[in-house]
Amino acid sequence: MSEVKYDLIILGGGPAGLAAGIYGGRARLNTLILEKGTIGGRAETTREIVNYPGVPQTTGPDLTNTMREHAEKFGVTILKESPKEVILEGEEKVVKTRKNTYTAPAIILATGTSARILGIPGEKEFAGAGVAYCATCDAEFFQDQRVCVIGSGDQAIEESMFIAKFASEVTIIVLHEEGVLDCNKVAAEKAFAHPKLKFVWNSVPNAILGDDDVNTLQVKNVKTDELTDIPCEGVFFFVGQVPETKGLTETGLKFDERGYILTNDRMETNLEGVYAVGDVRQKYLRQVVTSAADGAIAATAAERYIEEVKDFNTRILGSDKPVLLAFWSQEYDGSLEAIQAVDAKNAQTGDRMFVEVDYMRKKTLAKKFDITLSEEKPAVIIELVNGKMTREVTADTL
To answer: Which helix (H) or strand (E) holds 131?
Structure first.
């Protein structure tokens, strides 16, 4: 297994990852995108996109293919490989696949989401034998057959209308009262007027039945608990998404209660040099346009981070002049006062370079020099000579 070094690694080739690649490539970063599935992500399976600014109407495959070509135009390498191990802590981020080991000082996580599994009886057993989660992939297999759709959000209703191009009838199972859908108003109006769409209200799926293939969906009325069998040959689930974070949960990343990666407005995670973008991060709106924006922001932030690291290694660690590295944090009282006292004392002699380091943003650097701050020790100042730590100093010992 060979080791290949890049400036920037992006995990995921959906709109967020491709946009990050475009910005990374344009910044002349040696950029790698690794995608274990389909280039374009979930957006690639969307038949109609009408809300991407500047593009009144397109398809998911057309838009994401254009993004891919754009990224490759800027020299981005795109490989279809599945990460087996990801190491995010340390100066070099490491991604191991079956073929190679890839390293880079910065990494962008754009791993997206996958369909939520309800786990009702028959769902797992009939997967691929009538149970489906992707209309683009499977709708054509139900030509002139009866199909049930679980869900009432934008995806469920829009996919139902696509499935109806093939199926003889589509029955949508809705949890809410009659007339209440979770989708946008335009989609709802189209769905109510569609001749092939039927609705079963106040209901949830209870079990999927069949022999070798699906032949019945059993639903339960949430008000009466009454069970009803609906004859059908296919059941499509559109009940939300879950973040794709397999292999990332033990890396030191912080997640919210639903498993989405936490970031700030620069797409930075809690780990230095690690960014998260698109549907996998905690955010308000999950759309192609917001994913693309995330990717642009993260790649720009990563570029600046990489330059900061290069500058630090050259200007600070490579300095012929002694350097005072002052680790501080606004989380601890007295932290700034402690380093300011050393700065003032050092200014009297002027024979050392004085560099402030935000402890919370430079955990990797702090770990390199075994620095830990606390309420009892709110600041640490070390002296470097030729890039090596010689001693810890205070205003009294300088």
So the answer is: strand 131-132
Longest Cα–Cα distance in the chain: 87
Strands 234-237 and 214-221: unpaired
Q: Which of 137, 213, 311, 358 is catalytic?
A: 137
Query: Tens place of pLDDT for every residue, the chain, 398 residues?
Result: 689 999 999 999 999 999 999 999 999 999 999 999 889 998 887 777 888 999 998 988 999 999 999 999 999 999 999 999 999 998 999 999 998 999 999 999 999 998 899 999 999 999 889 999 988 778 999 999 999 999 999 989 999 999 999 999 999 999 999 999 999 999 999 999 999 999 999 999 999 999 999 999 999 999 999 999 999 999 999 998 899 999 999 999 999 999 999 999 999 999 999 999 999 999 998 889 999 999 999 999 999 999 999 998 899 989 989 999 999 999 999 999 999 999 999 998 778 999 999 998 888 888 889 999 999 999 999 999 998 999 999 988 88
Residue type, 64: T
Active-site position among 7, 62, 138, 154: 138
- What are the C-alpha distances in Å from 253 to residues 89, 248, 363, 385? 9, 7, 13, 33
Could you tell me where the beta strands, DSSP code E, fall in 197-330? 197-200, 203-210, 214-221, 227-231, 234-237, 241-243, 274-276, 323-328
> Could you give the strand order of the β-sheet that contains 169-173, starting from the edge strand earlier in sequence?
131-132, 234-237, 146-150, 169-173, 197-200
The predicted model scores a pTM of 0.80
Answer yes or no: are the C-beta atoms of 153 and 240 closer than 8 Å. Answer: yes
Q: Is 148 a catalytic residue?
A: no
Has 183 been annotated as catalytic?
Answer: no
Residue among 7, 62, 134, 351 flagged as catalytic: 134
40 Cβ neighbours under 8 A, 6+ residues apart: 13, 14, 15, 18, 60, 61, 64, 65, 67, 68
81 within 8 A of 99, measured Cβ to Cβ: yes
232 is catalytic: no
